[in-house]
Amino acid sequence: MNAISEIPSVSNVLATRALIVSLTISQWTAHKFDRKVSQEVNETHKAASDASRVNKSLLPKKALEEIQRKANAVRTEFNGRTLPWLDDGQRVLAAEHYVDHAAWFQKQKAEYEQLVADFLTAYPAHVDKARARLGDMFNEADYPTPHEIAKKFDMTMRTMTAPSTDDMRISISDAQAQSIRAEVEKTIQEATNRAVSDVYRRVREVCERMVDRLSAYKPAAKKGDRAEGTFRNSLVENVRDLISVMPSLNITGDPKLDDLAQQLEALTAHDADVLRISEKVRDETKNKAQAILDGMGAFVA
Hints:
By secondary structure, the protein is α+β, with helices and mostly antiparallel strands. The protein has helices at residues 10-17, 35-44, 62-81, 98-134, 146-150, 174-216, 234-249, 255-265, 272-277, 279-296, and strands spanning 18-26, 31-33, 55-57, 83-84, 91-94, 154-161.
């Protein structure tokens, strides 16, 4: 029989509320193993043939610096806007916020591609300078054509629907299907727990930082003195950033997470400048952050 009985599950909730996304960014490293120079180095030092490997930097660091910085920034923000899922680099976010996420990604991709285009325009000049920079190690064959290099840069986001055990269509017995569904459900439940725990971890971290920094801060006693335990404007901005993405991270529609986001709003009522000036405001904000931590209970265990 192919009949599969109903199993209430988190997978069915996710199937209607969440999407799985993954980000792939590829770049040209501009490094090349030089077999000839490696051999010369090993022979000069009377070392084994595999004792050292010389990897040439074909271009100066600055040539690709902007592209690398952009790639790192996109990865960081992509991970901030999503939650971990399984162990293969996939991420998850609430489906109702996917349109905004996709628009953000398209903007980042366009900016990345523009940086690549700018690099390719300057590429011939970089190669010319490399002749003098590398001296006898320069080898024209080490340098791909601009067309070949363009293919080495890419930024892609892939999207899939979240799996559901209700959507299994395989020709096996009911007992086998039940066993497989239970295993799939367990995997999805564990992945969901890790994802949701990541939200609570982020809340815990910004609140702990708020408590620690505001507790350690001591304003200057008089003009000319330096304050102790100074903190940056990012102390408040990081909380605001987390609040802005929490709706996208609430993949199960958990009202407790919505409530936490509202509680975090109280920590952003005053900018860092005000927190530095007013001891009363600092204490109130610190106490609110501590109250959030205390109220999270098992979620921060």
